[in-house]
Amino acid sequence: MTDGRYEAADADPTSEGDAWDRRVAGLLALLRHRLTGDYSVDEFGFDKQLTESVFLPALRPLYRTWFRVETYGVKHLPEEGAALIVANHSGTIALDAAMLAVAVHDEHPAQRFLRLLGADFVFRMPGLSEVARKSGSTLACNPDAERLLRSGELVGVFPEGFKGVGKRFADRYKLQRFGRGGFVSAALRTGTPIIPVSIVGAEETYPLIGNIRPLARLLGTPYFPVTPLFPWLGPLGVVPLPSKWLIEFGEPITTEGLADSGDDPMVVFNLADQVRETIQQSLYRLLELRPDPWSA
């Protein structure tokens, strides 16, 4: 969805010539507005225009054609107002976060944006940090999360962190520990519903079979992955395998009336455990629905 000025760049043309004309026209319109400064960013650096016109269109071929994503339970996302979207994390490279953002925007009638919470490592990486900020992400800390939720945003979090995205293929679809439940505290303090999300398909994109720890320490990364294709095939090894993806948005878990329990460790732990178990059971159900990772 666009504001009308760049609609031509994302339309469905009737011929190849029309497609190129529309893309070029849309690109020129975008460049003109960028050069004149006719755009705005919010206090976190989110650039709505750039996200709609560049980031989301770049991800859609992966979403629609390569991974053939199917979504369930989109009705559980609110038309307006805040919600904390909590998902499992996997896949060696965190494509699940990008595909979840596309699903929230493209599959929901209101075409809302997902404001992802990222690890500090993301915001230390040159280039990646700028893209993350402009596409709506911010640091995974309670103050930022609570500010976004109080502003009525949809906020996405992956409590497994690098433990999830960097786990071996042998441990696929087995949820890792959810940390200290900081996401629960943010939801409780703001009275925001928690929507558990289960993602099937990311585990097969880059099956992690090893980790070269000395290289990881040298590069300052959480791990240096070894997959069936990487690093053996060089840059070609970075191409994700075309696994079939399913994304399910579960029923919201209410936090109303529990604002005073945001600092209660027992309440936080129990609610985090409830969310984790809900996602785990949903993963088992989706895996039965998708018996073949390479199905159409």
Automatic annotation (TrEMBL):
SMART domains per the UniProt record, alphabetical: PlsC
GO function terms (MF aspect): acyltransferase activity
Any one GO cellular component localisation term in the record: membrane
Domain Phospholipid/glycerol acyltransferase span(s) in chain numbering: 83-202
InterPro entries: P_lipid/glycerol_AcTrfase_prd, Plipid/glycerol_acylTrfase
Pfam families found in the cross-reference section: Acyltransferase
Protein name (Swiss-Prot/TrEMBL): Phospholipid/glycerol acyltransferase domain-containing protein
Organism lineage: Bacteria, Bacillati, Actinomycetota, Actinomycetes, Micromonosporales
